[in-house]
Each structure stands twice: as structure tokens, then as C-alpha cells.
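Quick one before lunch.
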Amino acid sequence: MEKTTLVWLQRELRLSHLPALQDAIAQSDKVALVYFHDPQRTLGQANSVWLAHSLLRLQASLRHKGAELLLYSGDFAQQFALALQEIEPQQVFYSVQVGQPFTEMQNLALQMCKKRQVALQPFYSEFWFTPGEVVNKQGNPYVVFTPFYKAVVDKLPALQPLDERVVTRDEDWLKLHWPQLPAERFELPLSLREIQNRPWAQKLLQYWQPGEDAAWQQLQRFITQNLSDYDHDRDFPLLDATSRLSAYLHFGEISAQAIYFELIAYAEENPQLNAQPWLRQLLWREFARLMLWFFPNTETEPFQQKFADMRWQDNAESLSAWQSGQTGIPIIDAGMRELWETGYMHNRVRMLVASLLTKDLNVNWRHGQAWFANTLLDADPANNAMGWQWVAGCGVDAAPYYRLFNPLRQSEKFDAQGDYIRKWVPELRTLSSKAIHAPWLYPQECVLKGINLGKHYPYPVVDLKRSRAQHLLRVDKLKRGG
Ligand code: FAD
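Model of the flavin-adenine dinucleotide complex:
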């Protein structure tokens, strides 16, 4: 009897370093490579734009090899059942993912496969080490990053590289050819086609090129051009100094483990290079994924329980000013407008906008998380939840509650000439590099430059000194159980 395997792609949209696909091809006569698109379970609008392009590119790469990606669109449970019926696999392979909507779909798949007596095999290749392998002396997951990082670094020499090639003979790609299936299985789902055609989506894609090939090119560019200065330059938002690989990583167009082996190979050839600072960031990603694996409710609830009683103000006007980049605080507005224009925001600025929203404006971090989830191309359940909880002070290894970023000091430090602000807040571009960080403190210069505060650019939505004091009072009260 012919052996058929269904390989279910959740967000590992690549053809290299993918053990689930590799094992399926090695073990089976026929392999169906399937993506299920459930419009009720997508992550966010910007994510969907990337997803649409990534699926198209993957489809094109497979067609080039005489193979196909099969697309099922609609309610996940119904479509999964339909795929089992149409493909008749004896086994389903998938790479385990954390966060919603993945865990819910994984549970549904488990139930359906069990009912139909189809074997379901998880692969843990999207983790560096299988969850539970890196634990502390008590056998518990690390909840503080630095000891986690040290433990992982100790274990890294034992890490085995994933095979790059998923097929050993080119003709094996033909196992992924399904001419008998209805034409709609080969077409991008309607909801993704629609989103892709929106002007907003077209605008985002001017800045990015999704897909596996582009991911590798981006990695090479970063490693050879920016890695040596990463530690110093990474905090300056105007510089193109970080890898900008986050969306590629989110969609699994490149494997984080494969990046690690590329990195050490390059570091060995260039011994003067310090690759640790960037490796550390990659491991923050791993830490976030493990936190969601061990504490899945932290996607929506504070890790530190006492923050569940926090009284948020949730002022709709403040939230809207923040979302639209109209807070009157230039570095914040620059970041929020960069996000809207490009689907990306620099990490330092992400921390600043999150701190302003949660600590100065006293808006629940979940609103910020939701906005990011909808507008970031790299929106990721694990990194986004961890980032917001870290800044809000309620997460694992969080910034202390009393630490508010002062956006003006940060702006002067990391955008000293104000050119990042000038780029994204052009109405302030004529201001001096002193006044541009806080125009309301320089009314004469504003008048001189024809900038009418309150008309051309808003006054700040909040008095930063007062909001800081109020935040500290609120959190003190919370800590005392009030
Ligand atoms: P690089 O500096 O080149 O880092 C390399 C990779 O390491 C990144 O691509 C990313 O995968 C990982 N990484 C870097 N910093 C972090 C971090 N602090 N936490 C976890 N992983 C990290 N990142 C996302 O990928 N998706 C999100 O939805 C997301 N939301 C965030 C929300 C907030 C409030 C904050 C403060 C941070 C958030 N981050 C998120 C983390 C970080 O800002 C981005 O990963 C980074 O800016 C992406 O740029 P890069 O690829 O050039 O990063």
C-alpha cells in the first residue's frame, strides 16, 4: 500500500532545514504539503499581508521543482477534516508552534487524527532545544533571562545542525505533485488575495520582500555589513543596524537554528568579531517562545499575578493619539508613524512607545499588544506578549515597575540630531536638534519656524513629570495590595 504523509505547515514557510518535510519525503510515497488558512484565526492585518506573499513565493518555488503547496481555506476543523478525506494520509507531520491560534489548531488536529486513527507526529525543530531540555537545577523552566542564556550557551556545542536539503534526490519533489485535487487547492485564499490588493498592503511591501531567498540574502547582508557594529549601533533607530529578520523568523522563512550555524561559521572565519550580542537577541526570542510554551496564559494575562488588579485608565483619546502618532511627543510619534508606514518599528522605540502607553498614559498593555499584533509585519504571539509585559513591568524578567523610560532623554540620547524624528514627523523637520525632541519647550523657535503648536503639531497629551509621579503612586498602592 502507498504511504502518504500530510505535512502541515503552520508558519514554517520554507523548503530548507525542515525536518517534518524531510522525514515525510524520506518515509513516504506521496507527500501533501498543506497550509490551512482560517480567516477567523489569523493574527493581524499586517501579518496577513506578509503571509499572502510568503505563500505565493513558496508556491512558486515548489512549482519550479514540479511540486505543489496545497491550500485549504475556511474553518480549520472543517478544512482539516476535508484534507484528511481528500489526501487520505496515514500520518500527519507538523512543527510545533506556540501561541494562538496555533495551539488551538494543534489541539483540534490531535482530536481529529485520534478519531480517524491517523498518526500525528510533532516536530520540535522550531525550538533550539525541545521544551524541557533547558531547565534549572530544580527541573523548572528559567523565568529570568540571564541564567537561561548562560544555560543555553553551555548547551550550544551539543546542538546538531538541521539538514539543509529536505530532499536527497531531485525527483523526490514529484512526491509532492497532486494533479487530481480541485483547482482551488492551488490558489491563494480569497481573503488573502483581497488583503494583498489593498493600497495599505501595497505600501508596506515597498519596504519588504518576503520569502525564503530574501531571508537568506538579508542574513548575509546583515552578517557581513552590520554584525561587527551591532552592539554599539543597535540602539539608534535611524541607523539600519539591526538584522530586520524578525518577520522572516516569525514566518519561519528562515530557521533560527540555521542562522546560529551560519553565525558561528562566520565568527570562526572572523575571530575579531563579537557575535554574542546578536546571539543574545536571538535567544530572547527563544526565551519568549519557551515562556509561552510553559505559561500559555501569559499571552493574555500578566505573568505577575498582582498586576491583574492594576487599575488602568484606558482613555480612548489617549489610545487614539498614540495609535495615530499624534501624542505631541516627537520620538513616540516618529515610532508610531514608522510602524504605520512600514509595518516595522525599531526595538528601542518599541520600548519607548510601550512605556509611554502603559506607564504614562496608564492604558492597559493589552491595547498596545493588540495594536502591534495588527500593524507589525513581525507580530508574533510570544515576542509581542513578552515585549509588552516586560515594559509594563508585569512579565517574566520584567523592567522594574519604577523604571519609566523618559522619552525626551531617550530621544536626545539615541536620536541626538533628531534625524529619525525628521524622517517620520516632517512637520518638525526645520526645528533645531535641541528643540525637535520637545517643541513645546521652545515656543519661540516654533513661531520662528512657522510651526503653530496645537495646529501643525499637537501639544503633548500628557505632562511627563506628573504622569511619572502618578504611575509610581499607583504601583506602590498595588504592591501594598490597595
Ligand atoms: P535584531 O536586533 O536583529 O534581533 C534578531 C532577532 O532576535 C529578531 O529578529 C527577533 O526575532 C529576536 N529578538 C530581538 N530582540 C528581541 C526581543 N526583545 N524579544 C524577543 N526576540 C527578540 N519582536 C517580534 O519579532 N515580534 C513582535 O511582535 C514583537 N513585539 C514587541 C513588542 C514590544 C513592546 C517590544 C519592546 C519588543 C517587541 N519585539 C517583537 C522584539 C523586538 O523589538 C524585535 O524582535 C526587533 O526589533 C526586530 O528587529 P530585528 O529583526 O532587526 O532585530
